[in-house]
Design a protein that fits this description.
Blueprint: E1 2-5, H1 12-26, H2 29-37, E2 43-50, E3 56-65, H3 68-80, H4 91-98, E4 113-118, H5 128-137, E5 141-146, H6 163-171, H7 188-201, H8 210-215, H9 225-234
Parallel strand pairs: 1-2, 1-4, 4-5
Antiparallel strand pairs: 2-3
Helix pairs in contact: 1-3, 1-7, 2-7, 4-5
Length: 241
């Protein structure tokens, strides 16, 4: 499942970059080659856009992708659909929405994976760690694609510092879970292509450099950083990064 953030932190141009990033990746010769080289030679995929708990939209339902024609048809449905609009960020809600979609969907896969891409921390619905642990208990892996963004959202919220570490500690989980970081929205297409190749070919997950993290003296945000910031905003202050 490709689960894509369309909360208010994502402006119209960025939403378009995300959609075309996925569409172009799925039709890329390198992705199609990875699918053909897989044990079954095909994958089943669905594309969902999400924001707050009340905003989850299945843009493309479960579909077999096994050749250029099926990949192009899937990609066209992504780019031609009416954009979904949301406000808050409920990663937990996206996971909860995804879980029952793997049951009785007409396919039996070797692995069940939710891909979460987004540019902010959970601030709506249940704590993300609760939903993550529920997915892990169901045998579903959550992988992440945090999008690093250094500008305030259209609503005026500053970006979450060290979002990649937040995804690493609080969002992903399950067998061989990993993140691939998009250093900007412009880098999103290349990041999602790399990530899909790793998943489809079942390669070992990439390792982040611990030395790099130590050198920058970076600290992972708490898993409720989004909820903390929401409370601060409601009180009229927002001094949390």
């Amino acid at each position: 499942m490709l689960a894509v953030d369309v909360s208010r932190g994502i402006d119209a141009d960025e939403a378009t970059l995300q959609r075309y990033g996925y569409a172009n990746a799925l039709t890329d010769d390198r992705i199609l080659g990875a699918i053909r080289r897989g044990r079954l030679g095909r994958i089943a995929a669905t594309y969902v856009e999400w924001a707050e708990v009340q905003t989850r939209q299945v843009v493309v339902g479960w579909t077999v992708i096994d050749d250029e024609t099926s990949a192009q048809a899937f990609a066209s449905k992504i780019t031609e659909a009416i954009p979904t609009l949301g406000f808050y960020t409920s990663i937990s809600g996206a996971i909860e929405f995804a879980l029952p979609m793997f049951d009785d969907n007409g396919f039996e896969g070797r692995r069940r994976v939710i891909d979460i891409s987004g540019d902010g921390a959970n601030n709506n619905g249940r704590l993300v760690t609760i939903a993550r642990d529920q997915a892990i208990a169901a045998g579903i892996t959550i992988n992440g694609l945090p999008i690093i963004n250094d500008r305030p959202s259209p609503g005026g919220w500053p970006p979450t510092a060290n979002l990649d570490l937040y995804f690493q500690d609080c969002v992903i989980g399950g067998s061989s879970a990993f993140i691939v970081v998009a250093e900007s929205f412009a880098a999103f297409a290349a990041a999602i292509r790399r990530k899909l190749i790793i998943e489809i070919t079942d390669l070992a997950p990439p390792r982040r450099s611990l030395l790099h993290q130590v050198a920058l003296r970076r600290q992972a945000p708490p898993c409720d950083i989004g909820e903390q910031r929401m409370r601060q905003r409601r009180l009229g202050t927002d001094d949390l990064n």
